[in-house]
């Protein structure tokens, strides 16, 4: 079994020239005639709901049309050197909040999810020759799965909590019915089925992800894991979680750093302002930890 997995966020895409989320928001507002809406301090999932609700008042809008437009826009993101270096790491599983397939690169991919999820992403995975990619917030091949609004986040969390705490009710015989936490305690039926399993069984290295507080699915998972480890004294949780950040953001986001520490996440500060060099240093740090050949 692999010793570690990665959780990769959108910031690695910012190295590549192309459309930013700010640009995309502006384009969406223009396309759907809601340019008067202010971004302000609105959490993105709520801003998305505001854009959508105002747009459907002006003209009837199928949400799939909006998400298809978004998926087509982000699909234009080009892969860069960091995507290639991540693929070169000897780890089987790469978890990502990104919708596009830059991490997979040009390699052919196959959807091997145990359940064909149209909206949520508990089992959503794509496999290449030697890697499994888990798109936990949806993917561009399935626009309805793209997780943007508050309603979608809450639905995703509901599915996650059922899988971990209550057990599943899928008709498929390939998915374990017992809750993950029960199976972990009993050391039974531990074959990898969902990306969520990895948060309890492997070291997770989190990079390129701001972990905004609105990402209630991930914050719930971190909190639930920490509660089981420290409050319920679950000794089967032996893995480690690591969060990489710059020196600048470590100083600015003190509140977030404190929350991560409380939730059993070790923070690793990388003192580098150049984005490409920053991610190379992260990958070198990971390689050093597991005594892997270092990427140049």
UniProtKB/TrEMBL annotation:
Species whose genome carries this gene: Sphingobacterium detergens
Name of the protein in its database record: SIR2-like protein
Pfam families: SIR2_2
Species lineage: Bacteria, Pseudomonadati, Bacteroidota, Sphingobacteriia, Sphingobacteriales
